[in-house]
Amino acid sequence: MSTLAVATLHQALRKSFATLESNQKVWKSVLAECSPLMVSLGNLAEQSRALSNVQISNTPLRGFPDLEERLRFKLLEATDIVLGKLNEKMSSLQSARDAISNQVASILHLYEQNAHSLDLLAVTEGSTTTPSVADMLEWLQDAERHYRQQFLRRKTLLQTLRADDLSLLESAPQRWNSLESPSAEDHITGKMYMTSMSVKVLSYPLHCSLSSLERKASGLL
């Protein structure tokens, strides 16, 4: 029974790390799309502040009495558009985060269901080329926690921004970039690389184990 349970866990681990890898790519791609939007947000805030510091009535443009109002409206409108696009990107980040969280929750639930039939050594023992099941489960939880916290911090930052609060808008790009955690991303990528090779190595014997168990079960019917 322990052999079948471990084989089932390894199959689930393959799926979990594949899900993590694909959604990490989505996450990075969406963040790359957010960068120019944040720069635009800061630039629009600077333009709005510059407009506030200029007395149009003292310039050659004083013949256009409603010019300042129209320019301010255009800047506010452009800012709202950029904020809307950033919120759309957050929806994409949330989808990636949810996919990772759901997959990790699923494999942890599977582990709990089979815990009674698992041999402790089969779960905790690894080798120089093959991480243990326990290690891989821990890595998945670390990755899930990272993306969950990253999403929450970025969402919280965006929720503080308003088109009429120039100070917050001007500092938004820098604060957004400060949330980056390249060391955590590198750590996750490194663990995925380690597991990608070991899981491939495990796939053949696990397939054989399952086939053998299925044949034995068929012989008992």
Oligomer: single chain
User: Fraction of residues in helices?
Assistant: over 70%
What's the average pLDDT? 86
Structural class: mainly alpha
Q: What Rg is obtained from the alpha carbons, in whole angstroms? A: 26 Å
Count of discrete alpha- or pi-helical segments spanning 4 or more residues: 6
Number of strands: 0
Shape: rod-shaped
Terminus-to-terminus distance: 18 Å
Secondary-structure element sequence?
HHHHHH
Question: What proportion of the residues form beta strands (DSSP E)?
Answer: under 5%
How would you sum up the major sheet? none
When the domains are counted, the total is 1
Parts with pLDDT < 50 across at least 5 consecutive residues: 203-210, 216-221
GO cellular component, one term: nucleus
Pfam family, one: CA109-like
Summarize this structure briefly.
It is built from six helices and no strands. The chain has 221 residues and is mainly α. Residues 203-210 and 216-221 have low confidence and may be disordered.
Name a few traits of the molecule.
about 220 residues, mainly alpha, about 85% helix, disordered C terminus, CA109-like
Give a description of the structure:
This protein has 221 residues and is mostly helical. It has one domain (2-220). Helices cover 83% and strands 0% of the residues. α1 packs antiparallel against α2 (67-114), α1 runs antiparallel to α5 and α2 packs antiparallel against α4. InterPro entries: CA109-like.
Q: What's the arrangement of secondary structure elements?
A:
Blueprint: H1 2-52, H2 67-114, H3 120-124, H4 133-160, H5 166-178, H6 182-220
Helix pairs in contact: 1-2, 1-4, 1-5, 1-6, 2-4, 4-5, 4-6
